[in-house]
Amino acid sequence: MRRRISPREAKRMMQRMGLSMDAVPEVEQVIIKTSGKEIVIEEPEVAVLDVQGQRIFQITGGKISEKAVERKLVIPEEDVRLVADQTGKSLEEARKALEESEGDLAKAILLLQSKG
């Protein structure tokens, strides 16, 4: 038969092992952003576990919702100039071709060359 450990005993044991765990008070929302979506957790319980200088966050409960994130393609100006130089087209045409090819230089150059 195993004896149950009280929260106080558990905290003492963790401190002896170099661990500490504290609650983060009054958390209203946690947002996790990935390249394609945003996960929103409303009114969660959040605890921080310190393990030898590394912080680990534990998020529990709350209402979870997900939404897709629109990715904005950022095309560097030097890429636009390179495509324009390689094809003899204007910067505007080069930028448009890069947007159509999702930033792929080779595809943008081929696209403009195929248009003549």
How is this fold's topology laid out?
Elements: H1 7-16, E1 19-24, E2 29-33, E3 37-42, E4 45-51, E5 54-60, E6 63-68, H2 77-87, H3 91-100, H4 105-115
Antiparallel strand pairs: 1-4, 2-3, 3-6, 4-5
Helix pairs in contact: 2-3, 2-4, 3-4
Describe what is shown at a glance.
Helices cover 36% and strands 32% of the residues. By secondary structure, it is an alpha+beta fold. The chain has 2 domains: 7-68, Nascent polypeptide-associated complex domain (Ubiquitin Ligase Nedd4, Chain: W, Single Sheet); 77-115, Helicase, Ruva Protein, domain 3.
Number of helices: 4
Total number of domains? 2
Element-level helix/strand string: HEEEEEEHHH
Average pLDDT works out at: 87
Q: Class of the largest domain, according to the CATH hierarchy?
A: Mainly Beta
Main pleated sheet: 3 strands, antiparallel
Shape: elongated
The CATH superfamily of the largest domain bears the name Nascent polypeptide-associated complex domain
The poorly predicted ranges are none
**CATH-derived architecture of the largest domain:** Single Sheet
The helix-and-strand class reads alpha+beta
Cα distance spanning the termini: 83 Å
The order of strands across the largest sheet is: 1-4-5
What report would you give on this structure?
This protein has 116 residues and is α+β, with helices and mostly antiparallel strands. It is elongated. 36% of the residues lie in helices and 32% in strands. The chain has 2 domains: 62 residues, Nascent polypeptide-associated complex domain (Ubiquitin Ligase Nedd4, Chain: W); 39 residues, Helicase, Ruva Protein, domain 3 (Orthogonal Bundle), CATH 1.10.8. Helix 2 packs across helix 3 and helix 3 packs across helix 4. Strands 1-4-5 form a 3-stranded antiparallel β-sheet. The model has no long low-confidence stretch (mean pLDDT 87). The chain is built from 4 helices and 6 strands.
